Amino acid sequence: MNIKLRDPNIIMKLSRLGSFHQSRLSFLRSFLNEFKDWDYKRDLFDLDEKGYGTAIYSFKKNDRVYSLVCFANKINEDERSDRVIATKWDAAFTLHDGVPLKKDVERLKNEVPKQEVGRLSYKELTLSRANKSVRVFDHVVENLSKGIQPDLDLLEKVGYLYRTTAVYGSGKFGLADRFRIKNREEINGPFRLEMMLVYLVRQFTFDQVNHVAKHRNPKIAVKLDPKICKNLGIGNSTGLGMAPFIVNHPTLLNNWILCRETALKKIRELKNVKAEDSDLFINCVRNSIKNITSWNTESEYQLNKIKLLLEDVEKFLNYLEKQFNFQKDYPFNEIYLWLEKETCEECIEYIVSIMMEPFAKITQPLIKKMSSDEEKYFNIPTDRTIEDLKAILEKKYPNILTIDFEKKENHKKFWFISKNKEEPRIADRFKEQGSDLEQPLAIARDIKKLYDRLLTSKKKLKIGHFLIDHDDLRHVIRRAFIIEKFPYSEIQDNTISENIIPIDMLRLKLSFFGALKFDPRSDKWLRICMFQGAPLPNELKNYDEQWVYKSHN
Amino acid sequence: MKSLSEIETTSKRASRAVGFSWGVAEEIAKGVRQLELFGFPGIKNLSQYYKLINKKKFEKLTIIKKNNKSNKSSLCPVDLGVRFLDQIKTLESLKKITFYKIAHPILFLPFLSRSSEIVGKRILLKFEKNTLLLNFNVNILSKFIKNEFPSIAKKVEVIFLENKDFFSEKEWKNLYKLSENTFVEETDSLKQGAAGAGLTDND
User: Fold this and answer.
1) In chain A, count of helices (H) and strands (E)?
2) A-chain residues within 8 Å CB-CB of B86?
3) B63-87 residue pLDDT tens
4) Angle between the N-to-C axes of helices A134-145 and A192-216, in degrees from 0 to 180, rounded to the nearest 10
5) What distances in angstroms separate CA A179 from CA A77, A389, A447, one per listed residue?
6) What is the largest CA-CA distance in chain B?
7) ipTM here
8) pTM of the model
9) Domain boundaries, chain B
């Protein structure tokens, strides 16, 4: 049986992309898999009794060492903010390439806590900062120092001791450019070093909380139970900074989605499924219910999605248990077709993710295809004709071409970069100033504009000549020739419409990171949790790959 | 030290700010990144050029011909570079193209470099007494490592070099003869065991 890849005009809609969930392909899971054989070590832990100071953690294999350098600083209550305008954080981190020398640590101590206004060097790979969940951190310290474990209900509600508010890489603020390290086998996957940073930060938060509790009451204090640690992750507050990334990296976006779609296609094409594989799938679906029921949010939008998801997953389980037989041919294809017919988008994508669990043989080779050498596709084939380009637009953007951009609601928003923090934002072009400095993220509008101009151009005219008078649309002409080769490279939606939900764009990216428990705090930012339930560093050598579905929370 | 990522982002935004379209700004940014990667003063020259761009008038070419004379002002290196890249498939057949008065010619280099890769030929750039060789977008050979790039090139020749060897047949033969020392002399029995040996039909 040959199953077709799913239609990009359906999958690349924002509502669908905003329903994606973590899977075996997610970057934090592929990071754990890649680094499970590396030697983990805490090289330095020089904190004072309040938990302020410097710590260093490392992963080492043969001659290669990656070191997380942590700086925990005292900040006042009124200085703690997750917002992008913050200038101080409870802790700041950088991932250093190799073993940092004393002079490196001194340099980093001065620069890393400053974050965006500090300067890093080519020796540093990623940069981040995090704030405590003060309520949880203080509660844990208080209890441990009394010799008792913390209240699990409180921990379950929050899910972490610290949340990061940004993780930077790839040349930002002087960090190493990707090209310097791209040939390293162990980081042949997107965002692997960012994942390493977050993972090691998680361990730092446990060590710090134990350290502070111990100093508060040296004789009685106990350590946080490793089982509790395991069920705590690292929170993350994410704003619009992530949204332009997926528009600005079309071939990378394509490769992420294409790998997911290819995995689904191959699973649907399996004629027979072994009992152990179907059992694993069913168990993961069953266990995952806990992930849904423990998903806390105050967002009405997300609560509604969770409610529908829970109802549909229960309905699906009922179908699996009472009506479905895995002995039949192409069982996963039948399951998929049932999902399409009977459940919501959120549930379809949720189950698609779980379908991958038994099939590492299918997902593992795909993980290596999730990076992209974007430079290769930068040149516009200017000897092609208007006729070619028009055909590409008609084939690849059929829904976009039907949007009427004369209507106010279809071009109400604009994307811009704020001057104070150089961060992307979105605003109402009819109410706010600045739309003259709009970023080139209104792809749908510009594609439509391009199409309209092509309609009045000579069919045989070469693109190179067309560009002489239409260079204002050069950025989308480039994209059109990219989508010709990369079907999932473009969001098939209007990113400047009145109804845009920007967090759908964030969620897409975060699902590929491997985030859990999306908690929208508005339509423009959300909180998530990473590595909740993941093995601790000392458990990496032999861990359960389905840990995501076995979290106690 | 600034990362190449920072160099590219800032060049793109600055280029947009002085009036280039986002698509052209992307081209410029890639070019400046490449210049800096190859050790050429891209940022310095772009910065100098953008200081002038709103004060002086620079000329734009639409269709590039064998001989391209600007009228009064000098040619904008960015616009010229973009047009050169866009028309590269037709320009290749001209073999040699001459331009008069190009401002900040270094900014024209990355476009020629990419053009060299597209057509699969080395490109030689000559202006005044200077020569630069653009090798398939892999590197740029020049003597400009220590010298200042001029802010204007009066007469510029762009020559598409035919692909040919840079060594003599004698030099090649010498080396080939040495390489033969890694081969094994074939005996009759080795010949019989070779792939395809002994087939009686040629269907």
Assistant:
1) 20, 11
2) 380, 382, 463-465, 467-468
3) 999 999 887 899 999 999 999 999 9
4) 40
5) 40, 32, 31
6) 82
7) 0.90
8) 0.93
9) 4-160
B114 CB within 8 Å of a chain A CB: yes
Looking at chain B, the number of H-run helices and the number of E-run strands are: 8, 6
Each residue's pLDDT expressed in tens, for chain B with a length of 203 residues = 899 999 999 999 999 999 999 999 999 999 999 999 999 999 999 999 999 998 899 999 999 999 998 878 999 999 999 999 999 999 999 999 999 999 999 999 999 999 999 999 999 999 998 999 999 999 999 877 666 889 999 999 999 999 999 899 999 999 999 999 999 988 888 877 777 666 556 55
**A174 contacts B83? CB cut-off 8 A:** no
- Reduced to 3 states (helix: H, G, I; strand: E, B; else coil), residue A333 is helix
Q: Which residues of B touch A179 (CB under 8 A)?
A: 4
Is the CB of residue B120 less than 8 Å away from at least one CB of chain A?
Answer: no
A474 contacts B89? CB cut-off 8 A: no
* A172/B6 touch (CB, cutoff 8 Å), yes or no: yes
Q: Taking CB atoms and an 8 Å cutoff, what residues of chain A touch B114?
A: 379
Instruction: Determine contact: B65 vs chain A, CB below 8 A.
Output: no
For the beta sheet containing A39-47, the strands, ordered from the edge strand earlier in sequence to the opposite edge, are A39-47, A53-61, A64-72, A91-97, A124-132, A160-168, A233-238, A526-530, A516-520
Residue A522: partners with Cβ closer than 8 Å, 6 or more residues away:
none
The answer to whether the CB of A30 falls within 8 A of the CB of A179 is: no
Question: Under an 8 A CB cutoff, do A477 and B23 touch?
Answer: yes
Whether B87 sits inside 8 A of A464 (CB atoms) is yes
Structure tokens at A441: 């993220």
- How far away is chain A from the Cα of B181, in angstroms, using its nearest Cα? 35
Q: Per CB distance under 8 Å, which residues of A are interface residues toward B?
A: 121-122, 170-179, 375, 378-380, 382-383, 417, 440, 463-465, 467-468, 471-478
